[in-house]
Amino acid sequence: xxxxxxxxxxxxxxxxxxxxxxxxxxxxxxxxxxxxxxxxxxxxxxxxxxxxxxxxxxxxxxxxxxxxxxxxxxxxxxxxxxxxxxxxxxxxxxxxxxxxxxxxxxxxxxxxxxxxxxxxxxxxxxxxxxxxxxxxxxxxxxxxxxxxxxxxxxxxxxxxxxxxxxxxxxxxxxxxxxxxxxxxxxxxxxxxxxxxxxxxxxxxxxxxxxxxxxxxxxxxxxxxxxxxxxxxxxxxxxxxxxxxxxxxx
Length: 249
Known about the structure:
With 249 residues, this protein is mainly α. Helices cover 76% and strands 0% of the residues. The longest helix is centred in the first third of the chain and has 31 residues, at 53-83. The two termini are 24 Å apart. It is found in: Cell membrane; Membrane.
């Protein structure tokens, strides 16, 4: 534990110098919210069962936040270090090698938390966002977000494990990330998708994360058992695959 925090501090400083993950985790969701909130406002809409666009968007954008750290920043950081032989050198030191992975995960999770807080604060201050109606709804939302984050990090771990190089990791991560955010309801509401696109969205774990978060936050209609089962399955299978396939060099 004594060696973990210096590594965490180093990784945090390194993260703060990396423009892409900081921008897409902290600023991009807020910009999306301001853009679409400015266009549509937060007036109740029949399309969203009487809820406002911002009320529907914020729980979905939370998936956007954990997806950028879990599917992009986390695996690309590991792939970069492996490609540059940093992981190999790290294993030659007396420090427990798992501390490095824990530090990477902690830094990205903290970045996700900051991004989520900024998003909720922007929605509340600028668009009259309705918060979860009760303490139990708030707790359910936090639990749903945690499960969604674990699922994204499990998939990201698989990306880091199977990518043979840093360059290929970038390609694989982009192939996974962009369909996950644009076809899952995380950025564009599923309610306006045609049937064929909804069929495609059913194959994406992020779809179930969006539905579960919107259900927890807004008490909306959802097959909670299915959402929980899919996300838990992704966490278990993805983590097992990542641990099995991960290479230090």
